[in-house]
DNA sequence: CAGTGCCCCTGAGAGC
DNA sequence: TGCTCTCAGGGGCACT
């Protein structure tokens, strides 16, 4: 499930296999992947060249000549890879961009959740979740004052709060469990019960964890592969996610798994106790 | 407006 | 063996 570090890894791969290439044909094998009219999408892009690939949160932004931007979200299992034109096409490949250099950029997505939307460059912030997306989880963009302020105004649980991309961009289920474990915060803690100290520690954990995971090319669980078909290395670094029933690396207590807002959630009941407002 | 819950999808794995 | 059921989950959307 690509989260920010995985999407950034994909972006870097795409810069090498797609940037600078000119499109001379597009096959759309599963129409729902494209939210535009499929024929208009194809006609608008044929003849265009990919000039750059940017990222905002978990969204990829393919920049084309002719002032066009394709917003691509991988959701659960979307992936890109390249191969020589005419290569084999499996049943989960839904979109193929043919380049003039006789290579293809293929989009594969087993669960068909991923979406692509073509818009005029400059209007991409009106597409889906980009309308309300929060700051990037970096030292410069994700300010402590801002974080403390939005926490105080939310009575919901901290885990779904962090999964909400309008609060801070890029966190998914895996990194949420990791940063809450690092910061010793219970996933069901109401957001407005966090102390300023906890908020500060949590913010630091988010920034450092995303940075560290990006450096290690993301986490490979299930099927995530980067644009070169390689796995990330960060799965070896996970402390909480996927470790239910095992001893907490910090205190040895058995980690437990519960459901929070429909999401599987692993945490240490000893290190991450539920606290009241005055604790 | 904030929060909740359903839905989109398929494959893996469990249970019978 | 083979069927059915459950689970995995990001984000859009309807609803409270």
UniProtKB/TrEMBL annotation:
Q: Which SMART domains match?
A: Fapy_DNA_glyco (SM00898), H2TH (SM01232)
Give all residue intervals belonging to the Formamidopyrimidine-DNA glycosylase catalytic domain: 2-114
What chemistry does it catalyse, as a reaction equation? 2'-deoxyribonucleotide-(2'-deoxyribose 5'-phosphate)-2'-deoxyribonucleotide-DNA = a 3'-end 2'-deoxyribonucleotide-(2,3-dehydro-2,3-deoxyribose 5'-phosphate)-DNA + a 5'-end 5'-phospho-2'-deoxyribonucleoside-DNA + H(+); Hydrolysis of DNA containing ring-opened 7-methylguanine residues, releasing 2,6-diamino-4-hydroxy-5-(N-methyl)formamidopyrimidine
Function recorded in the entry? Involved in base excision repair of DNA damaged by oxidation or by mutagenic agents. Acts as DNA glycosylase that recognizes and removes damaged bases. Has a preference for oxidized purines, such as 7,8-dihydro-8-oxoguanine (8-oxoG). Has AP (apurinic/apyrimidinic) lyase activity and introduces nicks in the DNA strand. Cleaves the DNA backbone by beta-delta elimination to generate a single-strand break at the site of the removed base with both 3'- and 5'-phosphates.
Q: List the GO molecular function terms.
A: 8-oxo-7,8-dihydroguanine DNA N-glycosylase activity; class I DNA-(apurinic or apyrimidinic site) endonuclease activity; damaged DNA binding; double-stranded DNA binding; zinc ion binding
Q: What is this protein called?
A: Formamidopyrimidine-DNA glycosylase
Q: Which residues form the FPG-type domain?
A: 239-273
